[in-house]
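User: Here's a chain of 344 residues. Predict its fold as tokens.
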Amino acid sequence: MAHVGSEEKRRSMIDQTFPLIDLHRHLDGSVRLETILDLGAQHNLQLPAWDLEGLRPHVQVTKPKQGVMAFIAKFKWMLAVLVDADACRRIGYESVEDAQREGIDYIELRFSPWFMAETHDLNPSGVVEAVVDGVEAGARDFGVKVNLIGILSRTYGPDVSWKELDALLYCRDHLVALDLAGDEANWSGALFVDHFKRAREAGWQVTVHAGESAGPESIWQAIRDLGATRIGHVLTAVKDPALMDFMKEHHIGIEACLTSNVQTSCVDDYSSHPLKIFLDRGLMATINTDDPGISGIDLNYEYEVAAPAAGLTLAQAHEAQRNALAIAFLSADEKKALAANKSR
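Assistant: Prediction complete.
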């Protein structure tokens, strides 16, 4: 990983007087290595290794992958240990504890119940209920404010996505938004317009993975047809100045994930990432972790190492931190309270 030795780098890129926020973190990409080993032993699973360093290369990215789907293949052993509702509840709880250890004040955790249920043929609705239970218990115990985002995994196609949406709606009052993730290159967002119409009718916000493996047209579609007010990754927006102007004018949020974009080879390196361009143009861009368990990073790493390597100044890192509160799926009163609590 890159190291930056400037005077500015030696000052924290995180404003300690302002809430630290992660808006784009996959729950099912945040399973601890220790938890994989523990659940593997409990359930007599055939893990590829039985110690942390032996397991690490099977779970974490050690060199860039060729594309998003190769990166997603790294989920294999995280999903393998989701053998029942208790395991799903546990990773929800531990994800909040990990956020607290990172100094995070507010986090939005997203998950695909079908993706989590598939390996052991679990009931997707039961997965949602277990995740909600674990996350809400973690929020109470660790004092971190958390909201949940449901994911439709486009990789399964629109028919399965209706079943996945039904599972998420089973706990509709415990989720704040719907996301579309998975194989963007081969499954157009146009196949999921009705799914997102139903989600908006249920009162949910919308964020969509777009512009990661497809061009600017995918981002336009997410905004215009799916109703997205935030976009995950959004790398290819840099190719379309009119799109960037539109996103600025309409305050469309950007959930940037620096390290994972390098690890998926969607950008060549940190310095090639468009996050600095987005901030230079005044877009509502933010810094997030994506799948910290797979990337082997945390939010502090993204600010202190990845952001400077991507060319961000101290002021821009702080701007991204403030943008995160501005575009968070929170009410105005909740945002005000979060900021007030941090500044005391």
